[in-house]
Amino acid sequence: MAEPSPLVSSLLHVRMRVNDLEGTVAFYRNVLGLTEVRRIVSPRGSKIAYLKSPGSDTELEITEYPASGRVSVPADLVHLAFRVDDMDRTLKRLKTLGIPVTDGPTPTENSIFAFIDAPEGYEIELIAPRRPPSA
């Protein structure tokens, strides 16, 4: 029996609801280097900012909608993972910005990863390729 063709062809965006749109957008822009590509107000009144990371077509949709109540993200519920080119350089920059590493850095066979906290209780995983030891 032949496999059915996929129903979807790509991931377009991931939505995260927040209490403070401006503060959250500033974090993703100023700390992680994402680019804001557009803003809209939805028909129901949600304020929405779309951001992209370099080298990715998937957008991060940050939404503020106070009418639905305050956002409270439980620990370890969700995280976003971003590739970084150099973990040492990344850790130095985070320290300069006053952003603490909450877990790691942890080496694996092919990569090294670390976690930081984003606004609103969301977690960010930063993953770098693991370089072979110098000879």
A few lines on this structure:
By secondary structure, the protein is of the alpha/beta class. The protein has 2 helices and 8 strands; from the N terminus they run E-H-E-E-E-E-H-E-E-E. The chain has a 4-stranded mixed β-sheet with strand order 1-4-3-2, covered by helices on one side. The chain has a 4-stranded mixed β-sheet with strand order 5-8-7-6, covered by helices on one side.
Plain-language structure description:
With 135 residues, this protein is an alpha/beta fold. The protein has two domains: 11-68, 2,3-Dihydroxybiphenyl 1,2-Dioxygenase, domain 1 (Roll); 72-135, 2,3-Dihydroxybiphenyl 1,2-Dioxygenase, domain 1, CATH 3.10.180. The protein is 16% helix and 38% strand. The protein is built from two helices and eight strands; from the N terminus they run βαββββαβββ. The protein has helices spanning 21-30, 87-97, and strands spanning 13-18, 35-41, 47-52, 59-64, 79-83, 101-107, 111-117, 123-129. The termini are far apart.
